[in-house]
Amino acid sequence: MSKIAKVVLAIAALVAVFAGGAYLGRASKSDMVITSSAGGAEYAGGFKAEGEAAEKVKAAATAGSLKSVAGPPGPHSVVVKDGESILQAVKNAEPGTTIRVMPGTYSETVYIDKDNIRIIGVIEAGRRPVLDGKKQLNDAILYSGNNFVVENLEIRNYKGNGVMGQAGNNFEIRNNVIVDTGVYGIFPQLGQNGVVEHNVVSRIADAAIYIGMSDNVHVAHNEVFDSVAGIEIENSRHAIVENNYVHDNTGGLLAFVTPGLPIKTTQDVIFRHNFVVDNNTKNFGAPGSTVAGIPSGTGILVMAADDVVIEGNLVSNNKVAGIIVTDHGHAANITVDPESEPNSDRVRLLDNVMLNNGYETIPEGKALLLAEGKGGKNLDIIRVGPSPGSCIVNRHQYVTAGVGDFGECDFTHTANVSTYLLPPVPPRKIDISERGKVAFLGICSGCHIYNGRMIGPPVQVIQALYLDNPQGLADYIAQPVKKRPDYPEMPPQDYLDPETRLAVAKYMLAVKN
Amino acid sequence: MRPGPRGDDLSLKSARPVLLACALVIAAAVAAVAVTRSGMRSATAAGDGFVLSDRCPPSFELMAGGTCELRDLYQFYDSLQDRGVGGTRTSLPQHRDGFRPEQIDLGRYLFFDPILSGDSTLSCGSCHRPDRGFADGKPRSIGIHGQDAGRAAPTLWNVAFLQSFFWDARVSSLEAQAQGPLFSPLEMGNEPARLLRSLNSNSSYRRLFRQAFPGGGDAITAAEVYMALAAFQTTLVSLNSRYDRYAHGYAAALTDREIAGLNVFRSFVARCAECHTPPLFTNGQVAVIGAPEPVGHPFDAGAERTFHAAKLRGGFKVPTLRNIARTAPYMHSGAFDTLRETVEFYNKGRGNAVPPGETLYLHWHISSPDLTAAEVGLLVDFLQTLTDETFMPEIPRRVPSGLPPLDNPRGIRS
Questions:
Q1: Which of A188, A208, A468, B103 supports an S-S bond with A165, CB 3.0-4.6 Å?
Q2: Is B54 within 8 Å of B101 (Cβ atoms)?
């Protein structure tokens, strides 16, 4: 059941190897390398925006608008008052609408399947609009649209998620108070380019903030507590997690690869300048969940994630360990996936402040310390499983187990990396004539061919009727009427937007075969 | 080139009611069908009357090089890492296309021709029936000599987008897949040498293969057979359901109940969308869900064998839910007759059907969601919105072997 319990078993096996003497010599080496992080080398790795995006990022940094990934607010605005429905406002909204929500209690699931919607709570003298699921509703906010912003809400008592995204790009989730919303507090999934900042999230049965299968994400200035996992970066790339207060969870910060998901890697994650303290809460994760195996008392956990930089965190009073680095091979709670690379490659442990961790660590951790001649000490950092290319700065400061083969890092800070965010990721550009062709082939070609009879009349016949009148044809397909006794009536194609209908009409009238 | 009635195709739609708009209608029009779905016939018709279409099927564009490429509205979107999983407006996974129209049409004849089976009683279409969502309506398929084939026939709709095949994900191409049922003693019961012998001794097929594969040699090869079958199957595209209209931005395409069902579907309480991820409604992965076997049917280790991994014992590929309302019964061996029973299985709690003595590493999303009966009903309603058979191909009335095209000894064909 417990992944880490199985890690523990594996550690026991390792201890047997170490006890054989293979490792003791290295563990006791005495040449101390002291590195000053002040003025040291900067991080050469990590995500770098290219081309036009790089210039825009630079300009945004100068303008102080780095975290505006959803673009500027649109032209429309509505106000929702206590007693009204936020969902109804979303349904009525054109893309480009800001929905201001006044203080009050709203008990509903708000889904957003359109682009450029902003739901902004109005906070009056400390009173926020409250979404209350009453432990009956599943999710509070469910979005799949792009350029989505949600701010200033208080969300409580849902069963699924507080804020859940499915594939929306350019999202901003900011300044929300989220309490006891089920499995996740904030869960953007399968999206690119998003900010999660200044949220206060607590009492969550899995991860308070869970970045799942997403790219280019910034998680900053959040307080997460009383949850099983604080902040989890899973099967995601290019994530910066900084300046968060992560306390009283079972485990604080997690970078995972979970096997069996369609996106296979976690790579390029920076955990920096976070407070990771007192994460000793009893694990109350659901049986079978990935986090159910986290031992209570874990500060930072890296499992199978690559290129994770851990820098400048204050990690204190986590009773099992400050930092655990492990792999799939030592995790029995998760499935296998031949497409998932199981090791935590290139973990970079820069300077961190580690205080009073590992004071009540798992017995096998104690044994591993003992095997390295550090018996009885409080464990700061433990590594089990292969972790090729990893490094650690000023290792002498910590009580470590299993990092003897980590090299010295060739950099000491990531100050040169301000963000992995991008300017709003543009939608795929589709030439309007291309839109007409694709819609014709993807839909209309089931009934119409150029010069023969199928279900509907031939395109040639339609061309003769509408040659100079594409708008007339576009209007007809939206609301067809029965014209030909020997043909069936055409079903309306009003689900296509007017622009697409006109593009289809133009394509049909121009096509030559 | 001459268009014209050929009379060798029978419009399936003329024979049965189909849900979708284009199809509703045909009964009235069938007598007048002049050019079939498969388009014009080339002018090389021989005395046997079999000719291959030189036109791409619906949803395909004929390219300058003479191949057909898929066009669909999801091509307007992107997806993370180009994996084709996400939400409403997300691109599809990478797909197979680029076959010549003649290869596609040849594949259609082969697909429905019982000459492919060891005793000439079964065609591909016997277990992948157009009128049953390209499944067969049976708990498990019935192979040669009436044998239980062990697992349920999966739908072929949208197989172009899959990266692995069979319930246990054991092969990674349609060409490799074709060899499974063809040569399984429990399914079509043929042998490669006999298959090639029977095709090569048929002059119509020899001529049609040369037309479809102009660069090939004199004799029909196995690779050509598999490729033609793959070509046909990749044209079974279903992306115009009412759900799709909703996803593309037309909110009125679904009723309030159906949208509520969609929201249960993608909520993190039910978690359906975590594995049955839009837009294909599968994430293409293997999952151990602990579904039961029908009474009396032995436990199936599934993907454990494929990957030599005990943790995948009882694991199966996540099936697409597109056209799911057409393909009852459900699960890998047909344990459930209805969608409601299937949904209720997930709602009965993690591991509710794991046999005594089995230890399965159940998928982490198999939970105990405690959905209300009303929510179960909403899910079932939503699943009905994934039906689209607009681009149904025609069943040939005759196939080159002269055998009845859909094996139908039991009078199945309506």
A1: A188
A2: yes
User: Which residues in chain A are closer than 8 Å to B250, comparing Cβ atoms?
Assistant: 494-497
**Residue ranges making up the domain that contains B234:** 46-71+93-238
Q: What is the pLDDT of residue A360?
A: 94
Q: Do A449 and B55 touch (CB under 8 A)?
A: yes
Closest residue in A to B23 (Cα) is: A455
Give the per-residue pLDDT at A66.
74
Question: What type of residue is A287?
Answer: P
Distance from CA of A335 to the nearest CA of B (A): 6
Which chain A residues touch B307 with a CB distance below 8 Å?
Answer: 336, 338
B309: nearest CB among A287, A336, A489: A336
Question: Average pLDDT of A378-404?
Answer: 95
- For residues B201 and B301, membership in a common domain is answered with no
- Does residue B16 surpass a pLDDT of 50? no
Buried b (16+ CB within 10 A) or exposed e, B33-53: bebbbbbbbbeeeeebebbbb
A190 touches chain B (CB under 8 A): yes
Query: Does the distance separating the beta carbons of B88 and A166 come in below 8 Å?
Result: yes
pLDDT at A486: 85
pTM of the model: 0.89
pLDDT band at A30 (very low <50, low <70, confident <90, very high): low
**B364-386 confidence digits (pLDDT tens):** 999 989 999 999 999 999 999 99
CB-CB under 8 Å, B364 with A338? no
User: Do B294 and B266 share a structural domain?
Assistant: yes
Residues B316-374: tens digit of each pLDDT: 999 999 999 999 999 999 999 999 999 999 999 999 999 999 999 999 999 989 999 99
pLDDT value of position A332: 60
Q: How far apart are alpha carbons B198 and B222 in whole angstroms? A: 12
Q: Which two tokens stand for residue B80?
A: 């993370």
Q: Give the ipTM of the model, two decimals please.
A: 0.89
Hey, what are A394's tokens?
Answer: 């000023």
Place of tokens 């209300």: B372
Whether the per-residue pLDDT at B75 is higher than 80: the answer is yes
Residue B407 sits at φ, ψ, to 5 deg, of: -55, 130
Residues B182 and B322 in one domain: no
One-character DSSP codes across B133-179: TTB-SSSS-B-GGG-B-SSPPPP-TTGGG-SSBTTTT-BSSHHHHHH
User: Are A446 and B55 a contacting pair at CB < 8 A?
Assistant: no
Given this model, what pLDDT does residue B336 score?
A: 97
Residue A65 has pLDDT above 90, yes or no: no
- B172 and B150 in a common domain: yes
pLDDT of residue B220: 98
* Cross-chain Cβ contact B285/A261 below 8 Å: yes
Q: Which of B184, B206, B238 is the last residue of a domain?
A: B238
Q: Which residues in B lie closer than 8 A to residue A135 (C-beta atoms)? A: none
Q: Which of B184, B215, B238 is the last residue of a domain?
A: B238
Q: What per-residue confidence (pLDDT) applies to B45? A: 52
**Contact across the interface for B364 and A183, Cβ inside 8 Å:** no
Provide the shortest C-alpha distance from residue B338 to chain A (in Å). 25
State the SS3 of B275-316: HCCCCCCCCCCEEECCCCCCCCCCCCCEHHHHHCCHHHCCEE
Q: Does A142 touch chain B (CB under 8 A)?
A: yes
pLDDT band for position B26 (cuts 50, 70, 90): very low
For domain A432-510, which CATH number applies: 1.10.760.10, 3.30.365.10, 1.10.287.3510, 3.40.50.720?
Answer: 1.10.760.10
For the segment A336-353, the average pLDDT, to the nearest whole number, is: 93
> What was the pLDDT predicted at A318?
98
Binary contact (B34, A452; C-beta < 8 A): yes
Nearest-CA neighbor of A186 among A140, A148, A145?
Answer: A140
Which residue among B23, B35, B86 sits closest to A452, beta carbon to beta carbon?
Answer: B35
Cβ-proximal residues to B106 (8 Å cutoff; 6+ apart), any chain? B52, B208, B209, B211, B212, B228, B231, B232
